[in-house]
TrEMBL record:
The keyword Hydrolase is assigned to this record: no
Source organism phylogeny: Bacteria, Pseudomonadati, Bacteroidota, Flavobacteriia, Flavobacteriales
The organism of origin for this protein: Flavobacterium ginsengisoli
Coiled coil listed as a keyword: no
Keywords: Lipoprotein, Signal
InterPro entries: LolA/LolB/LppX, OM_lipoprot_carrier_LolA-like
Highest taxon above the source species: Bacteria
Record-linked SUPFAM superfamilies: Prokaryotic lipoproteins and lipoprotein localization factors
Name of the molecule in the record: Outer membrane lipoprotein carrier protein LolA
Length: 237
Protein backbone atom coordinates (compact mmCIF):
# COMPACT_ATOMS: atom_id res chain seq x y z
CA UNK A 1 0.00 0.00 0.00
CA UNK A 2 1.42 3.40 -0.95
CA UNK A 3 2.12 5.72 1.95
CA UNK A 4 0.56 9.18 1.88
CA UNK A 5 3.06 12.01 1.69
CA UNK A 6 3.13 13.71 5.15
CA UNK A 7 2.57 17.15 3.63
CA UNK A 8 -0.33 15.85 1.56
CA UNK A 9 -1.74 14.07 4.62
CA UNK A 10 -1.62 17.30 6.60
CA UNK A 11 -3.44 19.16 3.85
CA UNK A 12 -6.13 16.49 3.65
CA UNK A 13 -6.52 16.55 7.44
CA UNK A 14 -6.90 20.33 7.40
CA UNK A 15 -9.64 20.04 4.79
CA UNK A 16 -11.40 17.29 6.74
CA UNK A 17 -11.38 19.42 9.89
CA UNK A 18 -13.48 22.01 8.07
CA UNK A 19 -15.60 19.64 5.99
CA UNK A 20 -18.37 18.99 8.53
CA UNK A 21 -18.93 22.68 9.24
CA UNK A 22 -18.80 23.49 5.53
CA UNK A 23 -21.13 20.60 4.76
CA UNK A 24 -23.65 21.88 7.29
CA UNK A 25 -23.49 25.30 5.71
CA UNK A 26 -24.06 23.88 2.24
CA UNK A 27 -27.04 21.85 3.37
CA UNK A 28 -28.58 24.95 4.80
CA UNK A 29 -27.65 27.06 1.84
CA UNK A 30 -29.91 24.67 -0.01
CA UNK A 31 -32.51 24.96 2.72
CA UNK A 32 -32.38 28.74 2.50
CA UNK A 33 -32.96 28.66 -1.22
CA UNK A 34 -35.78 26.19 -0.71
CA UNK A 35 -37.50 28.14 2.06
CA UNK A 36 -36.78 31.81 1.37
CA UNK A 37 -39.23 34.22 -0.14
CA UNK A 38 -37.15 35.96 -2.78
CA UNK A 39 -39.48 38.96 -3.10
CA UNK A 40 -37.16 40.95 -0.85
CA UNK A 41 -34.16 40.41 -3.11
CA UNK A 42 -33.50 43.03 -5.74
CA UNK A 43 -34.40 41.59 -9.11
CA UNK A 44 -31.23 40.95 -11.06
CA UNK A 45 -32.51 38.29 -13.39
CA UNK A 46 -36.27 37.85 -13.62
CA UNK A 47 -36.10 34.32 -15.02
CA UNK A 48 -33.78 33.19 -12.23
CA UNK A 49 -35.99 34.88 -9.64
CA UNK A 50 -39.13 33.29 -11.08
CA UNK A 51 -37.56 29.82 -11.00
CA UNK A 52 -36.41 30.25 -7.40
CA UNK A 53 -39.88 31.44 -6.45
CA UNK A 54 -41.36 28.30 -8.03
CA UNK A 55 -38.99 26.14 -5.97
CA UNK A 56 -39.86 28.09 -2.83
CA UNK A 57 -43.60 27.83 -3.40
CA UNK A 58 -43.46 24.06 -3.80
CA UNK A 59 -41.15 23.41 -0.87
CA UNK A 60 -43.21 25.50 1.54
CA UNK A 61 -45.95 22.89 1.34
CA UNK A 62 -43.70 20.19 2.84
CA UNK A 63 -43.76 19.40 6.55
CA UNK A 64 -40.22 18.01 6.50
CA UNK A 65 -37.41 17.21 4.07
CA UNK A 66 -35.01 14.25 4.12
CA UNK A 67 -32.00 14.38 1.79
CA UNK A 68 -29.35 11.77 1.03
CA UNK A 69 -26.37 13.39 -0.67
CA UNK A 70 -22.91 12.93 -2.08
CA UNK A 71 -20.23 15.46 -1.20
CA UNK A 72 -17.16 15.82 -3.41
CA UNK A 73 -14.09 17.95 -2.86
CA UNK A 74 -11.53 18.61 -5.58
CA UNK A 75 -8.39 20.71 -5.76
CA UNK A 76 -6.37 19.93 -8.89
CA UNK A 77 -3.42 22.07 -7.78
CA UNK A 78 -3.03 20.10 -4.55
CA UNK A 79 -4.03 16.81 -6.23
CA UNK A 80 -6.81 16.27 -3.68
CA UNK A 81 -9.99 14.37 -4.52
CA UNK A 82 -12.41 13.20 -1.86
CA UNK A 83 -15.94 11.80 -1.95
CA UNK A 84 -18.22 11.35 1.04
CA UNK A 85 -21.88 10.52 1.57
CA UNK A 86 -24.30 11.81 4.14
CA UNK A 87 -27.88 12.68 4.93
CA UNK A 88 -29.80 15.49 6.55
CA UNK A 89 -33.34 15.72 7.97
CA UNK A 90 -34.89 19.18 8.30
CA UNK A 91 -38.10 20.38 9.88
CA UNK A 92 -38.73 24.00 10.74
CA UNK A 93 -35.81 25.28 12.80
CA UNK A 94 -34.47 21.82 13.57
CA UNK A 95 -32.13 19.44 11.78
CA UNK A 96 -30.08 16.25 12.07
CA UNK A 97 -27.00 15.93 9.88
CA UNK A 98 -24.95 12.72 9.49
CA UNK A 99 -21.65 13.25 7.69
CA UNK A 100 -18.14 11.76 7.82
CA UNK A 101 -19.00 9.64 10.87
CA UNK A 102 -20.26 12.59 12.89
CA UNK A 103 -23.85 13.43 13.82
CA UNK A 104 -24.99 17.00 14.45
CA UNK A 105 -28.38 17.62 16.05
CA UNK A 106 -29.93 21.07 16.35
CA UNK A 107 -33.08 21.12 18.48
CA UNK A 108 -33.81 24.79 17.88
CA UNK A 109 -31.69 26.04 20.79
CA UNK A 110 -28.57 23.92 21.15
CA UNK A 111 -26.30 21.98 18.84
CA UNK A 112 -25.16 18.48 19.83
CA UNK A 113 -22.11 17.16 17.97
CA UNK A 114 -21.71 13.41 18.45
CA UNK A 115 -18.35 11.85 17.53
CA UNK A 116 -18.39 8.04 18.01
CA UNK A 117 -14.70 7.71 17.14
CA UNK A 118 -13.78 9.84 20.16
CA UNK A 119 -16.80 8.78 22.25
CA UNK A 120 -17.52 12.45 22.84
CA UNK A 121 -20.56 14.72 22.65
CA UNK A 122 -20.11 18.48 22.44
CA UNK A 123 -23.07 20.62 23.46
CA UNK A 124 -23.16 24.30 22.57
CA UNK A 125 -25.67 27.10 22.43
CA UNK A 126 -26.08 28.98 19.18
CA UNK A 127 -24.23 32.28 19.18
CA UNK A 128 -26.04 34.71 16.89
CA UNK A 129 -22.90 36.86 16.66
CA UNK A 130 -20.76 34.01 15.36
CA UNK A 131 -20.44 34.37 11.59
CA UNK A 132 -19.88 30.61 11.25
CA UNK A 133 -22.89 29.65 13.34
CA UNK A 134 -25.87 28.17 11.53
CA UNK A 135 -29.03 29.64 12.99
CA UNK A 136 -32.67 29.80 11.92
CA UNK A 137 -32.42 33.58 11.53
CA UNK A 138 -29.42 33.25 9.22
CA UNK A 139 -31.24 30.57 7.27
CA UNK A 140 -33.92 33.16 6.55
CA UNK A 141 -31.55 35.94 5.56
CA UNK A 142 -28.60 34.22 3.89
CA UNK A 143 -29.48 35.13 0.31
CA UNK A 144 -31.24 38.41 1.01
CA UNK A 145 -28.08 40.32 0.24
CA UNK A 146 -24.50 39.84 -0.83
CA UNK A 147 -25.10 37.96 -4.08
CA UNK A 148 -25.72 38.68 -7.74
CA UNK A 149 -27.57 35.91 -9.52
CA UNK A 150 -28.58 35.01 -13.05
CA UNK A 151 -29.58 32.04 -15.19
CA UNK A 152 -26.68 29.87 -16.36
CA UNK A 153 -26.38 26.71 -18.47
CA UNK A 154 -28.91 23.91 -18.90
CA UNK A 155 -27.74 20.29 -18.72
CA UNK A 156 -29.38 16.97 -19.44
CA UNK A 157 -28.58 14.60 -16.57
CA UNK A 158 -29.89 11.10 -17.21
CA UNK A 159 -33.00 12.46 -18.87
CA UNK A 160 -33.50 15.22 -16.31
CA UNK A 161 -33.35 18.84 -17.43
CA UNK A 162 -31.20 20.72 -14.92
CA UNK A 163 -31.24 24.52 -15.03
CA UNK A 164 -28.34 26.21 -13.28
CA UNK A 165 -28.47 29.54 -11.50
CA UNK A 166 -25.19 31.31 -10.81
CA UNK A 167 -24.73 33.21 -7.56
CA UNK A 168 -21.70 35.48 -7.26
CA UNK A 169 -20.71 37.03 -3.91
CA UNK A 170 -20.54 40.82 -4.06
CA UNK A 171 -17.97 41.09 -1.25
CA UNK A 172 -14.35 40.98 -2.28
CA UNK A 173 -13.54 39.37 1.09
CA UNK A 174 -15.65 36.31 0.30
CA UNK A 175 -13.36 33.35 -0.47
CA UNK A 176 -15.94 31.86 -2.82
CA UNK A 177 -15.71 32.75 -6.49
CA UNK A 178 -19.19 31.56 -7.37
CA UNK A 179 -21.97 29.12 -6.52
CA UNK A 180 -23.90 27.17 -9.14
CA UNK A 181 -27.31 25.91 -8.05
CA UNK A 182 -28.84 23.17 -10.21
CA UNK A 183 -32.64 22.94 -10.26
CA UNK A 184 -34.64 20.07 -11.76
CA UNK A 185 -36.96 21.93 -14.12
CA UNK A 186 -39.74 19.34 -13.84
CA UNK A 187 -39.83 18.71 -10.09
CA UNK A 188 -38.54 22.14 -9.02
CA UNK A 189 -36.26 20.39 -6.54
CA UNK A 190 -32.59 21.12 -5.97
CA UNK A 191 -30.34 18.67 -7.84
CA UNK A 192 -26.93 19.95 -6.82
CA UNK A 193 -24.88 22.84 -5.50
CA UNK A 194 -21.39 23.54 -6.83
CA UNK A 195 -19.17 25.96 -4.94
CA UNK A 196 -15.90 27.21 -6.45
CA UNK A 197 -13.35 28.89 -4.19
CA UNK A 198 -10.84 31.51 -5.20
CA UNK A 199 -8.09 29.07 -4.21
CA UNK A 200 -9.24 26.61 -6.87
CA UNK A 201 -11.06 24.24 -4.52
CA UNK A 202 -14.38 23.00 -5.85
CA UNK A 203 -16.98 21.32 -3.63
CA UNK A 204 -20.09 19.68 -5.03
CA UNK A 205 -23.17 18.61 -3.12
CA UNK A 206 -25.34 16.29 -5.20
CA UNK A 207 -28.77 15.16 -4.04
CA UNK A 208 -29.15 11.40 -4.45
CA UNK A 209 -32.53 11.20 -2.75
CA UNK A 210 -35.04 13.94 -1.94
CA UNK A 211 -37.96 12.83 0.24
CA UNK A 212 -40.68 14.89 1.86
CA UNK A 213 -43.35 14.52 4.56
CA UNK A 214 -41.66 11.48 6.07
CA UNK A 215 -42.87 9.84 9.32
CA UNK A 216 -40.42 11.15 11.92
CA UNK A 217 -39.90 10.06 15.50
CA UNK A 218 -41.07 12.51 18.18
CA UNK A 219 -37.47 12.42 19.41
CA UNK A 220 -36.00 12.96 15.94
CA UNK A 221 -34.39 16.26 16.94
CA UNK A 222 -33.86 15.50 20.63
CA UNK A 223 -30.51 14.53 22.12
CA UNK A 224 -30.98 11.56 24.47
CA UNK A 225 -27.96 11.34 26.79
CA UNK A 226 -28.83 7.81 27.92
CA UNK A 227 -27.90 6.54 24.45
CA UNK A 228 -24.29 7.52 25.09
CA UNK A 229 -23.50 6.26 28.64
CA UNK A 230 -19.74 6.00 28.09
CA UNK A 231 -19.33 9.20 26.12
CA UNK A 232 -17.59 12.27 27.51
CA UNK A 233 -20.10 15.14 27.53
CA UNK A 234 -18.37 18.41 26.73
CA UNK A 235 -20.63 21.37 27.56
CA UNK A 236 -19.24 24.55 26.05
CA UNK A 237 -21.90 26.84 27.54
Amino acid sequence: MNKINPIMKAKIQEINNNSITNMTKKCFQMAVILLLSFTSIQAQDKKAKDLLNEVTSKIKSYDNIVIDFKYSLNNAKENINQDSKGNVTMKGNQYVLNFMGVTKIFDGQKTYTIVPEDEEVTISKVNEKDDNAITPSKMLTFFNSGYKYNMDIVQNVKGRKIQYIKLVPTSGKDQRKEILLGVDVQTKHIYNLIETGKNGTKTTLTVNSFKTNQPLSKNQFTFVASKYPKYYINKLD
